């Protein structure tokens, strides 16, 4: 971590500049960079700054502090080692910190940095006055303060998962209550999901509650809660993770002693969650191909209490920041092997992966489901920023038809490339010889990346795998069972899959599908005794497995061994 507390402003401004310049999306701008400050604080500050870039722009204009300021946002071609943010983005970050973060801001640092940029000792007072003026004119210009902007959007709550490697739910509840937070208690089996969501929307500051589906590990706080300021978060006992993401390891339901492979593991939240589901007899392989993201993965797991790590890649395991907290009582962790490699380059026939029965695949995607958590400046608003050396103005323009068509073609081409990659990765996961279950997830709402990918894989691997029904679709389920209303598209035969919708489930947009190995239609049960009958399963004309009793003669000596038909693979088939 950096010893200079002002570094976070420069690094956050760089992330904001990359997003506004359309060089990267926010997540990759933050996690793929070698930032020295707390990566989670950078992400949170950048997210809030981008979310309010319009009102900050107007505030800076009204203040008169930005005339002649550099506003050349970084593009993909400009990005290089040692790149810095434009002056406008740095001012936006400093202005947000000064105007909105209240007691959590470092006003002494902010004011000093503002003076260094503007050479105006009254810059902070000018910004405050300019902000009030911007609010007064917000209705005429359709701008609005940060609070007004938030009111126009769906307010998602804050989710924090209990890190069971370091603590337990009871310990977390005890500490939160001792800190003055109030738990809203309800009976899961007597409250409907609809009523539960109403309770979540009514949460007030200082309150929290347990989740409806993940009652033993997921906490819910009001949307304005600063979880990063909690000591439990700083000690890695609470992990900020959206509910939809937390569902994936739970739905995979691995056997505690089985080996698991996490194909695109960074930054490691789901990996960390899966570690808590496994015994010391299991091995978890966590793979990521990007060296920077791979190091983040290693650091995240080590700092969060994973203590049986081995690294195959450019990171030294001895350099990782191991957590000094003792693991939760009675916790015996699996072995975790971290591998820096492209998942498509991994050989399914490698003996290391012979015991892999479960694979989690959360590949790169468009991130279209993150629009409420991860605003990308004017990317989603259709705004265009004019460059001017003497004034900073932001205008909303209606693109010409040719521009709309070009943007549509670019988006369609990008989605096509993404879906092809996702299908290749899923095909590859289904080629592992002993895999029993493969779960596929994206934080995308696009059919191209979800149902279309699943449909293609069903057509190709349907003789060996079936789509597993993920929870029930029926409201009145047996006691203790779970249901989920929003499903994959029926017209594409993906109703077994789950979709999470912000407007209905108060989560990010998310998609989950699970492939499960069919029972073999060729396996033979050994004979009962000499001269007796044996029962075998024969292949039938339809897709169902029908067992038939057949009378057979006793085979000759030396030929009475059961033969297990090896499952076919399609490793030699190219991805479509």
TrEMBL record:
SAM-dependent MTase RsmB/NOP-type domain location: 148-518
Record-linked InterPro entries: MeTrfase_RsmB-F_NOP2_cat, MeTrfase_RsmB-F_NOP2_dom, NSUN5_7_fdxn-like, RCMT, SAM-dependent_MTases_sf
One cellular component (GO) term of this entry: nucleolus
Protein name: SAM-dependent MTase RsmB/NOP-type domain-containing protein
Catalytic center residues: 443
Composition bias, Basic residues: 558-568
SUPFAM superfamilies noted in UniProt: S-adenosyl-L-methionine-dependent methyltransferases
Residues that coordinate or bind S-adenosyl-L-methionine: 264-270, 288, 342, 362
GO molecular function, one term: RNA methyltransferase activity
Keyword Lipid biosynthesis appears in the UniProt entry: no
